[in-house]
Amino acid sequence: MLLNELRTLRKEELQAYLPVVDLRITQRKRKAVPKSQFLPPDPWCDLMKLAISAGLCREELNAVGAVRQRASKDGLGPRDITHAWACDALDSILATSSRARFRRGVDCLDAMRASVTSFDLLPLTDLGPLPDKRRNGMAKLSDRLVGEIQAHATFRGLSHNARRAILTAITLVFNHTQKKEMFEMPLAEIPLSDIVEATPSCAGPLRKNWHRTCAVARQLEKEVSFQWGRDWADLQRLVVSAGVPVKENPVPAIAIPAQNSGLTPTQIDREWAWPRGHVTLAFRSLSSFMWPFVQMPRGFCHLMTSAAVVDYRAH
Q1: Which of 12, 115, 186, 312 sees the fewest Cβ atoms within 10 Å?
Q2: How far is CA 306 from the centre of its chain?
Q3: In whole angstroms, how far apart are CA 242 and each of 91, 159, 286, 298?
């Protein structure tokens, strides 16, 4: 720039030392920048805004962001991700902290489906529960379903081992069936027999004790589907509260034929019980199905199957 300014002075004593041509650098015309094109809307951004408006804390937003990162990498939007995809994505995550964050993000999305009224930005179905490697790949039953099973076990007077056997069996059925939506219904409405019948044709390798698991599931369905009359239910609770063991409790065996005959506990007598001989039992001791889930209880024996024996022991 200075040399160019000296050339403009046109002094003869300087012309011998200055360049002949102008050294000014001409600026090239810049190409016109096209107007920025609008990017297609990102449904994940809208979902994150919905999560913020739903009151999710910072840690929960980060967890949802972990799910978003995995889904975006696979080219999936919030409406495209499924339970199967979430399971595969979880298997591909190696770091324990990242697995926990992804799992929490799935739980947050499921919680939003239950609380948010707008489903346009959320997955079509629940993504969880996801398999837990700490439980040999078994996903837990819902707290509601566990509560119903525990309530039934309390009503029947089952032992701790029997309760654990039932929960283990139903958890196994839940994890091996593709009809997991059935387990969202009340316990008495779940078609456990149909589920275990269809499971071997669609599930992977099953445990050796699958036949015992099926027996527990069928027995549980038979028991919870029985509609107890109020008088018989009160008698059952009194017997259980008195400490009578399940294998010695005759109430379930007698209640079924008695209710079919329209009789209350105070209306049955020897003449009604004796002609029936062996009473068909819909209620069996679940202790007989426990092996190899848990150790067989000490002093195990079969239920009484004869109404005559029941009448004899009662007198």
Answers
A1: 12
A2: 42
A3: 50, 14, 20, 20
171, 183 contact by CB (below 8 A): no
For CA atoms 43, 66, 82, 181, give the dihedral sign: negative
Among the candidates 164, 199, 224, a domain finishes at 224
Residue 140 pLDDT exceeds 70: yes
Q: Which among 52, 48, 53, 49 is positioned nearest to 67, based on CA atoms?
A: 48
Cα gap 89→72, rounded to integer Å: 12
pLDDT tens for residues 297-306? 444 343 443 4
Q: What is the pLDDT of residue 300?
A: 36
Question: CA-CA distance, 233 to 264, in Å (whole number)?
Answer: 10
Cβ of 70: how many Cβ atoms within 10 Å?
A: 21
Q: Does residue 120 belong to any structural domain of this protein?
A: yes
Decide which of 206, 224, 242 is a domain's last residue: 224
Flag whether the pTM goes above 0.70.
Answer: no
pLDDT digit string (tens) for 18-59? 666 665 666 666 666 555 555 567 888 888 988 898 888 888
Residue with tokens 């010695």: 248
pLDDT higher than 70, residue 67: yes
Q: What is the mean pLDDT of residues 249-278?
A: 81
Supply φ then ψ for residue 306, to 5 degrees. Answer: -115, 130
> Residue 8 — φ and ψ, nearest 5°?
-70, -15
| Predicted pLDDT of residue 64 | 93
Helix (H) or strand (E) holding 238: helix 230-241
Q: Is residue 280 part of a domain?
A: yes
From the list 141, 221, 123, the residue with the least C-alpha distance to 184 is 141
Say how far residue 304 (Cα) sits from the centre of its chain.
38
- pLDDT above 90: percentage of residues in the chain: 20
Q: Is 315 helix (H, G, I), strand (E, B) or coil?
A: coil
Please tell me the distance from the alpha carbon of residue 113 to that of residue 50, in angstroms, as a whole number: 11
Same domain? For 235 and 295 the reply is: yes
